[in-house]
Write a structure and sequence with these properties.
heterodimer; A: alpha/beta; B: alpha/beta; Nucleotidyltransferase, domain 5; 2 domains; 42% helix
Amino acid sequence: MPDYRQMWSNLGLDLQSHDALLSTLGSAYRDIFLSQEDRPEGMKYFDFVMTEVHGLRIKELMDAKAQGRIVIGSYCVFVPEELVLAVDGISVGLCAGAEFNFAGAEEVLPRNLCPLIKSAFGFKMGKVCPYIEASDVVVGENTCDGKKKSYEVLSPMVKDLFVMDMPQMKSEAGKQLLKAEYRRFAEKLEAVSGRKITADALRKGIETTNAKRTAIKRLAAIRKADPAPISGLDALLVNQIFFFDDPARFTASVNKLCDELEERVGKGAGVFPKGTARVLISGCPMAVPNWKIPTIVESSSAVIVGEESCIGERGTQWLTDGRGDTVEGLLDRITERYLKIDCAVFTPNASRVDHVREMVKKYDADGVIHYSLQFCQPYIIESGPAERELEKQGIPTLRLETDYSQEDTGQLRTRVEAFVERLRG
Amino acid sequence: MRVAGIDIGSRTVKLIVVEEGNVVVAKKRINSHDPLVTTRELLRDVPYDRAVATGYGRHLLKRYLNCDVISEIRAFALGAKALIPSCRTILDIGGQDTKAISLNEAGDMIKFEMNDKCAAGTGRFLEVMATALGFSLEDFATAALSAARAEKINSMCTVFAESEVVSLVAQGARRNEVALGIHGSIVGRSIALLNRVGVRGDIVFAGGVALNRCVRQLIESRIGVPVVVPADPQTIGALGSALYGASGLVRGDT
């Protein structure tokens, strides 16, 4: 493995903490992913990406920056990658998926706050996220109150924080607001990159992003097979890497994986026995390396067949209509596309349960696990009505609420096992 | 065939052996720091052909005995249904978990709810509070039942509730009224879980806390119907596990 220490040091990382983090991550990855049986060959590429997630990929970012390209870091699927690509920029998701340096985060944030936000601060303050250090601009978006207010605290810690306002209702006014904010974001990108967004560049950005989404949708569709050709853990990993990797290379690798999986399905081969209980996950995002619930589910005689989540179908199911000759027209198409995302910060948000129900049907799921991060009010509040609605329609639903710690694993396992017993009757 | 059902709980390990549909062994033992040692002692000189484990230590025992495992929720559902066939709702308050389970007409589990990761509203909560007030567990319920009114306990967290109790006592509150307030707080929490799954049909109250008369009476007065407490409410999970092993439900792939 090449030595990246000089690069990390130049980025201002705390090398000792960073070593400790990589070592923990590495052993968790071996235990959770590499120990799985009959993994598709195509997962080797994603294993490689994970091995190099703080190494080679960061070097690529630094090389691109040296050539004058910009890196845009974000924490949300409402930040349009199409626009970033239109200025030849690179869009990356920032670290927020592990319980790292919560003590540090709690020096500036309340204890009773969602672990995703605390994690973002833990990584930043502990100086272990190379992505945020490599970012020319960090985009904050006013989705939930927790993030909105935390960006105020984050602002002095990063080089350039761009806060984007968000509508809370999918009304005409909401659409106008989102479009105005996307336009402001586009102007920001132009200013930082020194490039003008043309209709051509934007169409190309849309095309690249759509190709990535189309590949991930293809992967999703293959998961409807029984036996499941790929574990939910591996599929989640691919969805997580969606946010880090070079888009074109990612698209090609997902398609290659899909070729192999389609072959498996054709032969009736799978990673779990035929008839294994099939679970759909719905709720909060699971950012790398948050593999807690899928690990429990898939070691409890069940397989996850889909994720109704920002890291999953909520973020990828819609393509952007790339037809249009003007930047203005394409901005409208982008706005329309993103406004379809059924995030729980919107009210009302009935389309979300409809989507969960469609996914249950499409992927032949036996039940739904509704996953909420602790203190995530939008999703926790939605979980009650969502559960009632799904149960009413005969879809068994289990609500789980947890954080990034491991101390409740035993209790979660009891619930998940009992739920799987319920599904199998 | 003799089938052993072993329920390794946080406070107590329970063992039931079933042969030809009859319970032939019923034992329990307070858990130590090493549940395997406690279980081994319980199993000493107890012959059996097959074992099924449940409770929080089930996976540990699976590695040790190579036995089958089922969740506590399923175990309680099976055990309660066997004892009281008309049972449709189960409340189990154990050492660290509280569970509400709903069964359909066929006796299959159709919904369950469980407390969050902390020990609020569980047997452990009662133990800590009894100690804080200087009661034995037996006297604790009796004292609570003797109170004419209850002190309000606001905190659900075991740690915070303990300091709340200490300050109530320091302000001169009556010990038995504080005791009643504590019982009321865990009942309130259990009722919320019960209401989530829906209270229907005959209700079985199981787990170690079902031995507490005050909790039982408060639950009955809150839901307005009597609950059935089995003769040995702590062993329902072990019974359910043994019956599972004897029933041919075992698939061998869990």
